[in-house]
Known about the structure:
single chain, TIM Barrel, 11 helices, eight-stranded mixed β-sheet, alpha/beta, globular
Amino acid sequence: MKRRKPKWLRVKYRSSDEVMEVQKLMNNLSLNTVCQEAGCPNLLECFGRKIATFMILGKYCTRNCRFCNVESNQPQPVDPKEPEHIAKAVNELGLKHVVITSVTRDDLPDGGASHFVSVIETVKAHNPNVTIEVLIPDFQGNVKALAKVAAAKPQIINHNIETIPRLYNSVRPQAVYQRSIQLLYQVKLLDPNILTKSGIMVGLGETIDEVQDVLIDLHDAACDLLTIGQYLAPSKAHYPVFEYVTPTVFRQYKQIGLSLGFKHIESGPLVRSSYHADQMAEIIKAQPSS
Length: 290
């Protein structure tokens, strides 16, 4: 039986000149956004604010996670013009905080880390006052690949844990929970000045205690920032929604995380990895140094 979305998950359709402007810019520069490819429910809001999350290394992923709407297919050649195109888009959109993610490219020797570096360096060269957040894959545990990205000194390195360990085999079978936890910890060993961030989806059948255990693991790995949002199945072929988590429970998760010591948490039904990432970056920047 199909579950009816509760009122707190209903997004009103709205369009604007800004939305069309962002879409046109991405098309003209042959750029992909995770907003479009993942079918994000916040696309119209973010594009309306002239904000987008760039997705590099093509639009086809080498993995086939059961929660994700990004297409799994034969990967595309890496576009050498992509760094310059993203830098141009950042300038035209007037972005102060840039979020760059990618498909997973297990076919590349370093998982695409070198291309991440090219994008970071090119964006910095053209937009020196911009802060940069990268949402990276696990690079199959390749520490040398991760070190390349850390050496480029983005302000934030994000890697999503996505779900609880018990559900990994069902939800993201090509990933490894401890490998993802270790990646976040490794960032701090490489450069303790880089902020680390992660995200988890709820509504897949996890318990509050299991989510709390994940938050403890993330905090123990020195993760600074966290996003918690409702899982929404992109289609009937994807992993099904087990429940719609109430706003009250999202507030409970936020309080658990803050009590553990996270620097900042966004927790709510429509929260996604890069949702209001610019605002989170400003909040963190305004906090006194510990």
